[in-house]
Amino acid sequence: xxxxxxLTEAALLxxxxxxxxxxxxxxxxxxxAYLDFAVPIFFCIILLKCDFKYTVLSSISALLxxxxxxxxxxxxxxxxxxxxxxxxxxxxxxxNTSIIDDFVYGSxxxxxxxxxxxxxxxxxxxxxxxxxxxxxxxxxxxxKFINIVFYTFIALLPMGTIFCVYFLxxxxxxxxxxxxxxxxxxxxxxxxxxxxxxxxCCSKKVFYTCASYILFIxxxxxxxxxxxxxxxxxxxxxSEYVCLYFVIRDAFVLLQNYLLIKxxxxxxxxxxxxxxxxxxxxxxxxxTVVLVIINIxxxxxxxxxxxxxIIVNNYVNKLIYR
Length: 322
Fold this sequence. Notes:
With 322 residues, the chain is mainly alpha-helical. The chain has helices spanning 2-27, 33-50, 52-70, 73-94, 99-125, 129-139, 143-175, 182-191, 193-196, 204-222, 230-263, 266-282, 284-302, 304-321. The chain has 14 helices and no strands.
């Protein structure tokens, strides 16, 4: 009976999505905000309400019908990307993981998804944005800097999209009374980010996996191993940038918290911030290595990462059960 109800709800929501999408895209008002944010949020909500298998069935049906009606391959590719992002965010919301872990997973999968969409698009319409950009970058005077900007953009775009969809889906899920268990805990974490945000960090597994991946890429660079294929290079380098951001952010925040607990002086934190900022500018790689080593020491010495996650969980549980 419960499965029949979920199937019916998924079918109704799919019908609603098809009608809205055809009207929105057909009139030209559905591009940008609708396809980038409304579509993934919609399917994230379907997953929270109807579970994974019915959401996948719903997404396939909706994509096929919308594609056949509109007859626009580019729009179909765009919609498929948004649907996958929505389902991804829904899955992450229901998992027993930290919010920072969710953003790491989501951002890296988002990078791969962007590359997949570009490959799919180039196969169907004969134009690849990434390959064209690489061609133009090599013609410029400073291709290294241009490539850094490009890979940073590819890393930041899915990161920003995942964050927006994740947060907006939590808000809408609360309004519709769909949140329970892990998704409800994550809503309280996001809502009280000012209070417990500084204690949110990656799990040990994710942090050390990211650090190991960065080390792996740097070793390849050291030995002169180069990937000429645009898509492979984009995935590897953009994923490294994602890992770098979260590793540096995590290591810096944990070091700040340790100093605050040990000495209870805000001035030390300000000095640390200035020193780390300047060090990253003048010696980025060495500073990153030092931060990771300090983090390893803190983890071995006082298990700081686990303790911070316990602080966040205890705080959120008090809010939920008060």
